[in-house]
Design goal:
ten-stranded mixed β-sheet, six-stranded parallel β-sheet, globular
């Protein structure tokens, strides 16, 4: 069970036969999102509805009685049910044998409180936009796997992040869903009197009541804060409605609820964290509340309260791009601080300068606030840590230099089903638990080529099938002719070299770099004997017009007669499309302007599925690159001239594709496979999957950040004792 028990009220009224009553528990624990057997179990209940919904709570709510009558009589279904529930219970009750508890069997301090503005666990709960949210979701999953005492805090966005369609002109259209929270895998947290827990948050001129929901991620609880409460003013109920809302004051209201409300929700539940992890600056206002509590509750003067807050706070910065280091007008922040102090907090005047680069002047910067109120700060790759330290060393605060903990991804979530089955068969059913063991690498390299290739081809064919479905739906909506729609049935060749590019369409990520010289691109893609195809996916923020223009250019190229069938743009990029892409492509392409890509976790997901990486030496690839694992685009240095960088990197990627990637893929033997390509695939899995897994990442956080932070406030914690094989 979770090391942090949080009482909840009942969820949806789901009627289940007694024989399968535990499906209720399974549906409300996001452990199912990384259990292939649980997916198969839910799919067996009603395959068509599962494909459409991919949400077990909604699936169970709508399952009719006659289906249950047949299922409980099915020997195969009941056998699968008992196997999944048995695995689920072993996982939940396996805390004593977890990595952290083996090292600290007597640990009794509070949990790590992890605050993040978005969490991506599964596409059915769309409270994420991209890399930051997926990283947060994977962090929770690995904290659960490792048994780390951990509680997450975020916001419950009733309308989530936008769903994307692309119209016939290539323009991105934005549609925001309206989630029915009663059909989501969330439970209301119980407050006094067995009523839903609510906490007050003061905003200028009023107090907003915030309801608390709980998502359960294996053994980790995550509190999600929701302003859509009937008693709130209608103008305040939508505060937590949309992720990354454009309005600046509304954004500050969201971040006030996350930081101030997050602290108060934990406090109301009697949870006393021993370490605080601020995941990006959006959550930094929790430090204001913590300092205020130390002053008003413990009677500390401001400097002492600041130091008490700093010593067990950890901050992760995720990007050097200005948009990711949020600033707010100082007068707007002053009004919010005045409202906060109205609730009994100290004089807000000293707090304003905590977020300013220069005392008494300039805007309020959330990254600056987080750096000044945290004892440890890190970037998300070695290169990014160096870039971040150069960016912020002028602050001159009493702090350690910004270090680095390179991001990782949760292998059980992102590994393809066929490859996962192969690894379980060859390495053992619990091979993920030994990912960091010395024997993993040799065991992967020993897998027969035919088996690795067969698993990859199966995943690639599924990608092609799903891409065809998506394109057919899109073109039908555009009113294309029946003849045009029939052509989609042969779109993409499962045997052709397939490149993938999927991420947020921000201009610095240069999704259109491959299109700088259309003549050279066409020559590479259209060779009859060695065809190449590229799949793109990604969203541009609704306020990012240059990003949307870039997306339009790629759509126009994909629809052109010269590139039709060789370039495909998939709309509504989400976790499902991401899984299919990273599991099915042969090569993953990444072309950011160095050094603006802080990490780039999509390439890690592709690498653990055997895809070879073709990327600028930025983010994780600057430390992961080896000549036998993939290719480096351009030079390993920064440019002052963006146009020169684009020119050189474009030249590099065309040359590498034509002279190295394509020949290696098509150097096939009599069995129509390339032995050397498969050798590269196996090395990619063997060497990169362990190094860039979230299991490694979260262990790094525990050893270099969480335990030192805990020790700073609890002398009984001795981080040197932790068992760390």
């Amino acid at each position: 069970m979770s090391s942090t028990e949080i009482p909840t009220l009942a969820g949806a009224e789901i009627e289940l036969p007694r024989e399968v009553a535990r499906l209720y528990d399974l549906a409300y624990n996001l452990w199912w999102t990384w259990s292939p057997a649980a997916h198969l179990l839910f799919s067996a209940i009603d395959p068509a509805r599962w494909i459409r919904l991919r949400n077990p709570v909604e699936l169970l709510l709508g399952t009719e009685g006659h289906l249950w009558d047949a299922l409980v009589q099915s020997e195969s279904f009941m056998s699968g049910y008992h196997a999944v529930i048995g695995a689920f219970d072993r996982y939940r009750n396996g805390l004593p044998s977890s990595w952290f508890h083996k090292g600290y069997p007597g640990f009794s301090s509070g949990p790590v409180a992890y605050l993040s503005t978005e969490f991506g666990w599964h596409e059915s709960l769309g409270i994420y936009s991209g890399g930051l949210g997926i990283l947060s979701g994977d962090h929770c999953k690995s904290a659960s796997d490792l048994g780390i005492p951990f509680v997450g805090v975020g916001l419950m966005y009733r309308r989530g992040y936008f769903r994307q369609t692309i119209d016939a002109d290539g323009d991105q259209q934005h549609f925001y869903p309206d989630y029915d929270v009663r059909k989501l895998p969330l439970l209301p947290v119980a407050g006094p009197g067995a009523k839903p827990l609510r906490v007050p948050v003061e905003l200028p001129g009023r107090t907003v009541e915030v309801q608390v929901w709980k998502a359960t991620v294996g053994r980790v609880p995550v509190l999600l804060l929701d302003s859509d409460v009937r008693e709130n003013d209608p103008a305040d109920r939508p505060i937590t409605s949309i992720l990354y809302v454009h309005g600046r004051e509304m954004r500050l209201c969201q971040e006030t609820i996350l930081g101030v409300g997050g602290f108060r929700a934990l406090d109301a539940l009697g949870i006393r964290p021993s370490a605080w992890h601020l995941n990006e600056g959006h959550s930094a206002l929790v430090a204001i509340e913590r300092i205020g509590r130390a002053m008003s509750g413990d009677g500390l003067p401001f400097p002492a309260a600041l130091e008490a807050t700093r010593r067990n706070a950890v901050f992760t910065t995720h990007t050097p791009v200005p948009a990711g280091n949020e600033t707010f007008d100082a007068d707007l922040v002053r009004a919010h601080l005045d409202a906060w102090s109205r609730g009994g907090a100290p004089d807000p005047a000293p707090f304003l300068d905590l977020g300013r680069e220069q005392a008494g002047e300039g805007p309020f910067n959330m990254t600056v606030l987080a750096l000044r109120t945290s004892a440890r700060a890190n970037g998300v790759s070695k290169l990014h840590g160096q870039v971040a330290e150069r960016m912020w060393k002028h602050l001159g605060t009493p702090r350690e230099p910004i270090g680095s903990i390179t991001n990782g991804v949760h292998l059980p979530t992102w590994i393809g089903p066929e490859l996962g089955d192969l690894l379980r068969r060859r390495l053992g059913q619990d091979f993920e638990d030994g990912l960091l063991d010395a024997g993993f690498r040799d065991a992967v390299l020993a897998i027969p080529d035919d088996e690795i290739w067969a698993a990859h081809v199966a995943q690639k064919r599924r990608l092609v099938a799903i891409a065809r479905e998506r394109v057919l739906e899109q073109l039908a909506r555009h009113g294309r002719s029946p003849e045009s729609l029939r052509r989609v049935a042969s779109l993409l060749d499962p045997d052709a070299l397939t490149l993938g590019f999927a991420r947020r369409f921000a201009t610095y990520k240069r999704a259109d770099l491959l299109f700088r010289d259309l003549g050279r691109l066409k020559a590479i893609l259209a060779a009859a004997d060695r065809p190449v195809q590229i799949l793109f996916a990604g969203k541009a923020h609704p306020a990012d017009l240059p990003g949307q223009a870039m997306l339009r250019r790629i759509f126009e190229a994909a629809m052109s007669p010269e590139l039709w069938g060789r370039v495909v743009l998939l709309e509504n990029y989400d976790m499902r499309i991401a899984r299919c892409l990273v599991q099915g492509v042969d090569v993953w392409v990444n072309t950011p302007r160095r050094p603006l890509e802080a990490s780039g976790t999509s390439g890690m997901k592709a690498a653990m599925n055997g895809a070879l990486h073709l990327s600028v030496l930025d983010g994780w690839w600057a430390e992961g690159y080896e000549p036998s694992l993939g290719w480096a685009v351009g030079a390993a240095h920064d440019y002052a001239d963006a146009e020169a960088q684009d020119r050189d990197d474009g030249e590099s990627i065309y040359r590498i594709l034509a002279d190295e990637v394509v020949p290696l893929y098509y150097a096939r033997d009599a069995s129509a496979k390339s032995p050397e390509w498969i050798a590269w695939m196996k090395r990619s899995i063997a060497r990169l999957a362990p190094r860039f897994s979230s299991a490694r990442m979260v262990r790094d956080y525990a050893l270099s950040a969480y335990l030192p932070a805990m020790k700073a406030v609890d002398g009984s914690v001795d981080e040197a004792r932790l068992w760390a094989p």
